[in-house]
Request: fold
Amino acid sequence: MRALGFLFVAGLALILAIPCGAAVLALGAMLDPATSETLSRLGLVGLFTGLEDLASGIGPETLLFALAAIARALFVLLVVPPVLVAVLGAVLGWRAATWYGAGAGLLTALVPWLARGLTRTGPSADALVLEGRITAVLFLTGAASGLVYWLIAGRHAGAPSENGRA
Reply:
């Protein structure tokens, strides 16, 4: 019965932690000028490309595929890291805030690097600085979601029961 209670609390914690990470990502993208410029440039390029494709006769299903790709990327950035950290923390009995905050933050920050094979996008130092700023925003995104999870459920992950039975 205790396990069902923990699963309920953990699910609720994830339901609250994921939107918190999304809010931090949106806030970081708005407040950091370099990240905001990069994301808006990519968004406008994608919008203009989509409009040109529609005008040239490519159907609207292309836009649906683009939206699906964006949704998949957001899922991988916002959902997968806190869920993995939560599962590992519960299985291994780790209850430290540093595990949930730093673990989810590092995993979220590493996602784009792992997706492209840990290579840099450009040879210039400016590109590396820009990547570092985006990586910092992603780290804060994951850390926020991990800490919200820890506040709700992580402090009790793997805690022994009062009567000594798990």
The radius of gyration is 19 Å. DSSP finds six helices and no strands in the chain. The longest helix spans residues 2-31. The chain has a mean pLDDT of 79.
